[in-house]
């Protein structure tokens, strides 16, 4: 009888030991994962944020400066140019730059890029001079 | 399943000496089976933990980087606009090369700031900061020696302040207050140079204040 009663206990012990060891591993892994997730996520976030921030900021600085240059030197004949510059500036100001989970980010960004190209062609700026002879890109 | 027998006999404590060798093997198998369980648990735990914080880390990194780099981008765009305008209006080569130089310095510094933002990388050292500034020939302009010493002290205090167990910020100290201060100083310096160029062109440098 003793053997028969002993067996379930032994199986229980094995199952419990397996669960316990698994659980111990899980806990260690979880703590590590929580930490690694922040680090890994942050790295992607920094890449993405830096790339978008720099690109959009460049368009804004460029547009605002050209607006001032045209106003200073121009009369009526620049009104079309000024209008398109204003549109670009407005698009950037309405862009939720600091929202990391904005769902239309790519769409909006494409529209801003399109408007920037339009601005450059209106102002007769060759592509190699648009952003100081260098396309904005980050290599990681 | 000999590790199972081993477990059973451990419970019953009726081990005969002549079985010792066999038991050794069984115990080893038991040990390796349990180590396997620990590893399995560890792997599952890592995945579960990561899922919880990946987005949080992403958001945190994104917000910080987008703000900082937007400001550099604005200045870069401003100078690029001036450069294209000066090209069109046939300004002096000296002015053009001054602008190109400014853009190059800005780009170099932008890369450096980006490196600091990536706190996963090893902690940037004050020496690296100075090397970069020396390369750029900016050190004399933006980091006076006494300020540099202050930066050193800030480095060590800031990096250890947040080492609490409940905080993920502990190792996230790639970009300290010391870095930020020197970054601001360099950015101001670059803005001042841009402003002085704008004044030479008869432009109001007011727009730089909003960047």
From TrEMBL, chain A:
InterPro entries linked to this entry: Essential_protein_Yae1_N, LTO1_adapter
In the UniProt record, what gene is named as encoding this protein? Answer: LTO1
Q: Which organism is it from?
A: Python bivittatus
Which ranges carry the Essential protein Yae1 N-terminal domain?
25-63
Which family does the record assign? Belongs to the LTO1 family.
This one is known as: Oral cancer-overexpressed protein 1
From TrEMBL, chain B:
What Pfam families does UniProt report for this protein, alphabetically?
Yae1_N
Keywords carried by this UniProt record? Cytoplasm, Nucleus
Origin superkingdom: Eukaryota
| InterPro entries documented for this protein | Essential_protein_Yae1_N, Yae1-like
Report the locations given in the UniProt record. Cytoplasm; Nucleus
Gene Ontology CC: cytoplasm; nucleus
Q: Which residues form the Essential protein Yae1 N-terminal domain?
A: 41-78
Q: What is this protein called?
A: Yae1 domain-containing protein 1
Source organism per entry reads Python bivittatus (Burmese python)
Query: Gene name?
Result: YAE1
């Amino acid at each position: 009888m003793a053997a028969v009663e002993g067996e379930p206990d032994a199986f229980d012990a094995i199952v419990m030991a397996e669960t316990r060891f698994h659980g111990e591993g899980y806990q260690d892994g979880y703590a590590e994962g929580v930490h690694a997730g922040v680090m890994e996520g942050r790295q992607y976030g920094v890449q993405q944020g830096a790339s978008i921030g720099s690109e959009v900021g460049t368009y804004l600085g460029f547009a605002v400066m050209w607006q001032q240059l045209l106003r200073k030197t121009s009369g009526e004949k620049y009104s079309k140019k000024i209008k398109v510059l204003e549109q670009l500036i407005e698009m950037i100001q309405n862009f939720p730059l600091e929202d990391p989970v904005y769902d239309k980010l790519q769409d909006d960004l494409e529209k801003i890029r399109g408007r920037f190209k339009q601005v450059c062609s209106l102002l007769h700026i060759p592509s190699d001079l648009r952003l100081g002879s260098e396309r904005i890109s980050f290599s990681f | 399943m000999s590790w199972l027998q081993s477990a059973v006999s451990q419970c019953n404590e009726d081990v005969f000496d002549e079985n010792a060798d066999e038991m050794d093997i069984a115990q080893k198998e038991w040990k390796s089976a349990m180590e396997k369980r620990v590893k399995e648990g560890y792997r599952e735990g890592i995945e579960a933990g990561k899922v919880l914080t990946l987005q949080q880390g992403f958001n945190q990194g994104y917000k910080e980087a987008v703000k900082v780099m937007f400001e550099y981008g604005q200045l870069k765009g401003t100078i690029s606009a001036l450069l294209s305008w000066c090209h069109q209006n046939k300004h002096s080569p000296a002015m053009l090369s001054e602008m190109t130089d400014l853009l190059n310095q800005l780009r170099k510094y932008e890369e450096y700031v980006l490196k600091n933002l990536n706190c996963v990388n090893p902690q940037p050292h004050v020496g690296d900061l100075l090397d970069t500034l020396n390369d750029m020939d900016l050190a004399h302009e933006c980091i006076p020696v006494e300020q540099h010493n202050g930066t050193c002290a800030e480095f060590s205090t800031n990096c250890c302040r947040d080492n609490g167990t409940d905080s993920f910020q502990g190792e996230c100290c790639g970009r300290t207050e010391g870095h930020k201060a020197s970054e601001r100083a360099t950015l101001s310096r670059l803005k001042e140079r841009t402003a002085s160029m704008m004044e030479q062109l008869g432009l109001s440098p007011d727009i730089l204040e909003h960047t």
